[in-house]
Task: structure prediction
Amino acid sequence: MADIIRLLPDHVANQIAAGEVVQRPASVVKELLENAIDAGSSLIKLIVKDGGKTLIQVVDDGIGMTDTDARLSFERHATSKITNAEDLFNLSTKGFRGEALASIAAIAHLEMHTKPENLEVGTHIKIEGSEVVFQEVSVTPKGTSIAVKNLFFNIPARRNFLKSDQVELRHIIDEFHRVALAHPSIAFNLYNNGSELFNLPKSNLRQRLVNVFGNKTNPKLVPVEEGTQVVNIKGFVCKPEFAKKSRGEQFFFVNNRFIKSPYLHHAVVSAFEGLIKTDTHPGYFLYLEVNPSSIDINIHPTKTEIKFDDEHTLYAILRSTIKHSLGQFSVVPALDFEK
Ligand code: ADP
Ligand code: MG
Result:
């Protein structure tokens, strides 16, 4: 029998990777916002049109890229964030896989302007379906602007699978909230179809929560704070009387990264036991700081699930910290529990 195995061409490999990284416009938003944060930006603008189907643009004032880096940033496994496997166990950046831009460029039309502070001129590059259309010198401010158009232009099945503009915008806003809540010291703007939806100035955490969720949020917040050898916890839980029928505002951040953890969620809910009705859900915004070497973020391309070395200890500390914080606010179980 003849040999039949061959290496896939790069653009095919990129398209396959894109299937995992980019589910919908909100996935592109997440990747671009995270890149802007990793670039040390202090102001990040997100501009979308038609729920991201027509345009997703992120403009930052971060470190920018040289013309060579600008070209290289769209190659697969091209990253400035890690250099060896050990670095995986000591991550301080959002990105490290070097896959996002290559993936997005494989399935969309993409245009980038970028310039590092110390250079006179920047670079303008246009890529469609992994093909460089042109790269030229451009006069542009310090930082990077990336515009993604016609997402899934070459994967009709994916494009047809997208929901209405409103639903896609909802997903984008959720992603925007997660990133903005993780980084109160960075200013963010969000525009949809030309109108400003959010204008979040640089602030502290409480103020950021109010700017995102409105003034009604402020009186609900009970501060949570604890420092141990395993974890530092800060943030807020909402007072029990504000528990809601629908699971709404529940956020975990680990080392400034939004994550989902049913196990830690359970720890929080159990701290509210006896204080809220069992069919209601407490609000929380909890920031855990752990040693980067005690977690594994590299489980899934979107990085919203992570593995902790010692989940059980974390659970116990979180539960008792929240119980303590609620106790300090002299919350009494005032609810009648009908059977
Ligand atoms: P990763 O973030 O995992 O490194 P990406 O594909 O998202 O991979 O980006 C590739 C590289 O492009 C990054 O490592 C970074 O050097 C550069 N880059 C991407 N976005 C920006 C940006 N907004 N500002 C400066 N550099 C960027
Ligand atoms: Mg990235």
Summary: The radius of gyration is 22 Å. The mean pLDDT is 93.
